[in-house]
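Can you give me the bound-state structure? Components:
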Amino acid sequence: EVQLVESGGGLVQPGRSLRLSCAASGFAFDDYAMHWVRQTPGKGLEWVSGISWNGGTTLYAVSVRGRFTISRDDAKNSLYLQMNGLRAEDTALYYCAKDILSGGGGSDLSFDYWGQGVLVTVSS
Amino acid sequence: QSVLTQPPSASGTPGQRVTISCSGSSSNIGVNYVYWYQQLPGTAPKLLIYRNNQRPSGVPDRFSGSKSGTSASLAISGLRSEDEADYYCAAWDDSLSGVFGGGTKLTVL
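Here's the bound-state model for the whole set.
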């Protein structure tokens, strides 16, 4: 059974940093591109970042480019999102998501499995 | 303001066919695939349609997707009460970023 479990969220002050983790199991993690998608409470979805199956390509939403860094550790079956310079508008539920097709480059938005999400609140 | 434009709401009666539109531009829908997601309250989104018109395993053929030019549509036939949910379209944009629509709340009357 495919499982994606996010962790690392919480309350943080504006300008500070936070690192999200996503532990994956039940599939060949190193074959698939992975993504972070966020959702503001009561609002819509926003794609945040994607990383190719081999980690060679990383892509970011304009709103987080230069502040967030996506990475993966295939030995640990884990995906990460390093978030620096956090702003109030980054407050959201952050989901880890897996591509439906193997070998993806990180720009395919077909996510067949999602985690339960982790809440990040940026406030003083 | 979302890059992809969806109507905020849609409705239909059981058994009816409803469509939800998604309007984009020449930098996203016009040149890239479209995806559709269903989100029930309190749950993570579920992939309904990928690469314009492909259904993942387990998604009923009542759900279908189409694309023409810079617009796309999700059609739901044989509407059921359990289809009441929020629906989102998504596409890759040539600004090297994924973009979602603002979502459409479907009500089954």
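A couple of observations. The interface with chain A takes residues 2, 33, 35, 37, 39, 44-45, 47, 50-51, 56, 88, 90-92, 95-103 of chain B (CB under 8 Å). The first strand of chain B starts at residue 9 and ends at 12.
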